[in-house]
Amino acid sequence: MTGGTGFVGSYLAPRLAEEGHEITILTRSPKVPEKLSPKIFCLQGDPTQKGPWQEAVRDHDVIINLAGTSIFSHWTEEQKKAIRESRIHTTRNVVEAIESGPDGETVLFSTSAVGYYGFHGDEELTEDFPPGSDFLARVAVEWESEALKAGEKRARVVMTRFGIVLGKNGGALGQMVPLFKKYLGGPIGSGRQWFSWIHIQDLAEAFLFLMARPEVSGPVNVCSPYPVRNRDLTRTIGKALRRPSSMPAPSFIIKLILGEFGSVILEGQRVIPRRLLESGFVFKYPKINEALQNLLCLP
Which of 233, 35, 69 is nearest to 139 (CA)? Predict the structure, then answer.
């Protein structure tokens, strides 16, 4: 697993271990994280660089590629280069390390994002929609293209297109909740833009589900079947925290602070996880109020 010590990986790896899987986390840090499951091991290495770590890939049936520089920042040209190259180089190196084998012997789960689709207003987007043309969409297309090359080695390739992942102690909620607690929460821009999201527990269960479905390959939207508008999200957070949610963040302020990334926040996508639903996956937290009640530990 690349990116295994990040926000998603630090939840996903222990959940896989609970089901009896042995996991090797590739990490740049020489320090081993504390309180690891006996089934989780660490291997030092930089996935953006070729190295001895690639030899370990051949000993694993499933490779989960989560690594990539965070997009949640002001986008300078240098930052955009880091966002792209961290994803492309890591995926290329992972795929290079996979050995050819019988069909289905190796599975590559390569993270992508709903940003693949670009901006389409109120239109519902499923896995068969074409990509957008903005920066994130172009990165996602190139990212997925590198992952698909593993198919030439007879690996099953699943591109998991994440919505915004909601979980405790980090992620989007880690940035939003403190503002609400300070009475500064509210809609962003018009508040009409769609927010495609997923509870981190449902994300982990989706991986377990897909690991057991050899017939599923290609793009899979990993997000709730009920995306919400930004204004409804902020209203629900405010209600859950018993805080007002009427402090708007004007569009021009968002663009001033975040630059080009501001457009991603102000536009959004209305994405539907059609392939998960058609395959029989059942979400535990399909609706935003249920998810927030759980994540914010409220009655």
Answer: 69
